[in-house]
Design goal:
The chain is 65% helix and 0% strand. The chain is mostly helical. Helix 1 packs parallel to helix 3 and helix 3 packs antiparallel against helix 4. It is elongated.
C-alpha cells in the first residue's frame, strides 16, 4: 500500500486505490454515526450518501460542543465548583480538537469516494 494519502487521512484506513477501501470506508463512516444509521441499507449501498450523513452528524457535534463552551460558565455557575467548570471546558476543548480532526478525515474520505486521486507532494 504505497499509494499516497494526504495528512489527516484516518489511521488504519486503506488508501483509495486499495480493493478494501470502500468496504473499510463504509465501516469507518458508520462508526462516526449514531448506531441507528446502520439500519438504512441506502447508506451501505451508496457510501457517498453515508459520507453526507456522517458529515452532518459531525458538524452537529462540533456545533453542540461550541455551544457548550460558550454557555457552560453561565449555565453551571453556583452548581458545581469552579475547578469542575474548568475541567469541563478542558474536556470540551479536547473534544473540539478530536471532532475537527475527524471532520478533516471525513472530508478526505468523502473526496476519495467521489473519485479524487491524491498524489504525493515532493
Amino acid at each position: 500500500m504505497s499509494a499516497a494519502v494526504p495528512p489527516g487521512w484516518p489511521a488504519g484506513l486503506h488508501p483509495p486505490v486499495s480493493a478494501e477501501f470502500e468496504k473499510q470506508a463504509v465501516n469507518w463512516l458508520l462508526d462516526l454515526c449514531p448506531p441507528d444509521y446502520r439500519a438504512y441499507d441506502v447508506l451501505r449501498r451508496y457510501p457517498v450518501i453515508l459520507a453526507r450523513f456522517a458529515a452532518g452528524h459531525i458538524a452537529s457535534a462540533i456545533g453542540a460542543a461550541r455551544l457548550g463552551v460558550a454557555g457552560i460558565r453561565a449555565d453551571l455557575a453556583g452548581q458545581v465548583p469552579p475547578e469542575a467548570i474548568e475541567a469541563a471546558l478542558a474536556a470540551y476543548e479536547r473534544e473540539l480538537a478530536r471532532l475537527t480532526a475527524t471532520n478533516r478525515a471525513l472530508d478526505l474520505v468523502a473526496q476519495a469516494l467521489q473519485g479524487t486521486t491524491f498524489r504525493a507532494k515532493l
